[in-house]
UniProtKB/TrEMBL annotation:
PANTHER family, alphabetized: NADPH-DEPENDENT ALKENAL/ONE OXIDOREDUCTASE, CHLOROPLASTIC, NADPH-DEPENDENT ALKENAL_ONE OXIDOREDUCTASE, CHLOROPLASTIC
Domain of life assignment: Eukaryota
Alphabetical list of SMART domains matching this protein: PKS_ER (SM00829)
GO BP term, pick one: response to cold
Region listing for Disordered, in residue ranges: 17-56
UniProtKB keywords: NAD, Oxidoreductase
GO cellular component assignments: stromule
Gene Ontology molecular function terms on file: 2-alkenal reductase (NADPH) activity; enone reductase activity; zinc ion binding
PROSITE patterns for this protein: QOR_ZETA_CRYSTAL
Name the UniProt record assigns to this protein: Enoyl reductase (ER) domain-containing protein
Amino acid sequence: MDEPYVRIQNEPQTGLLLPKEYFPPLLPATTDKHLTSTTQQSSQERGERKETTTMQSLLSSSVLANPCTTGSSLFPPTTAKLVAAASVPVAAAARSGAIAVSRRSVSGGGGRCVVAAASSSPAVTTAEAGEVPATMKAWAYDEYGDGSVLKFNEAAAVPDIADDQVLVRVAAAALNPVDAKRRAGKFKATDSPLPLIEVDAQTVPGYDVAGVVVKAGSQVKGLKEGDEVYGNISEKALEGPKQSGSLAEYTAVEEKLLAIKPKNLDFAQAAGLPLAVETAHEGLERAGFSAGKSILILGGAGGVGSLAIQLAKHVYGASKVAATASTPKLELLKSLGADVAIDYTKENFDDLPDKYDVVFDAVGQGEKAVKVVKEGGSVVVLTGAVVPPGFRFVVTSDGSVLEKLNPYLESGKVKPLVDPKGPFAFSQVVEAFSYLETGRATGKVVVSPIP
Ligand SMILES: NC(=O)c1ccc[n+]([C@@H]2O[C@H](COP(=O)([O-])OP(=O)(O)OC[C@H]3O[C@@H](n4cnc5c(N)ncnc54)[C@H](OP(=O)(O)O)[C@@H]3O)[C@@H](O)[C@H]2O)c1
């Protein structure tokens, strides 16, 4: 089978990056007859960004300096020794509790690089520890703020698993805007507790994971050790998301949130899919999208938009897909399946005569979006405000959605799009966040390999 990606740089981990033919058409559309629909509501608009970014500048712009990676290796020999030596199960409140650690700075400034030693909490495990160590390398934060709150722990506690969970040895993770917003404290009202409340607690960010099952809880029926899986580890993105996220060597996940990784995708490719493709799918479902309908996707080059285009065209059988992006990304939109690519730096989509059955807003332009929907149509908004008939929803993680989409991924009808600046090394998580927060990512910001 043809490899779907070109190796555009000598990344030791995967080398993948852009779809092979960054622009050529994908396979013919297929309609999934099982897709059904529901609906919802909400409101507010975020400003549009007018600056343009060439693909060349996107590819060549330098990453920010990371104090954790300057000088000697981020993972000094002592780290490997410490982790390899640790084999005693340690309590690690995986689902609701905190990751208990004691910390000391190794950065020599700014306190950004931190060594964490497992606490002496009593051991509580629900499955045999096997070869799983007691501690792991992880990125974590113990206060809300900008990227500087992210700290590297070389000995965070490996999460325990519940009966319905598996422990995943993380091979790759991906960032989503929600990771940055959560880190900034925008969802603190519904977030899991931070050390502001519980001393010595930390949050390991990361929703998206791809990796290998190394341990299964007693109620797990479909997955077993050795299975290669992927998924979005927090069922509700904003309601008590897991404290022990995917930017770590291990993460504990409910079986129902995972699916077997598509065979044709490597871990980095798979890691970029779950939250974004689940959002694209749920948005289309809630909007009542179906074969023969037209759709406008705002933000077509982003993580969600790039998948919404492909699902609309190649899974649902859209009659017409239009999408917005800046000038350098218009051909990409067409390669993904857009019939019409609108350059938002040159024209306002709401000034154009076309109207659509569904408008899918991944930018935060709800007030404009409702102007271009047909009578009786739907406007689904991911961020910001919207007026009726628009509605907003928050994605629910569901492994069965990934399972349903696996055939489309394995046939190549739907392809992951990994931003060409990545995959970022595990030592570059701070840079990966900074890049994500530019709002200019093309497809997904992936971190791989881990560690
Ligand atoms: N409600 C939910 O459940 C849910 C789930 C997932 C995501 N979200 C939210 O949805 C939004 C999109 O998520 P994402 O993961 O797709 O983000 P993303 O990957 O970071 O989006 C980046 C893309 O946005 C494009 N963009 C920026 N401004 C634009 C504009 N005015 N018009 C058209 N495109 C524009 C950029 O293209 P250019 O470089 O060409 O500007 C870039 O390719 C975020 O706010 C996220 O928090 C919500």
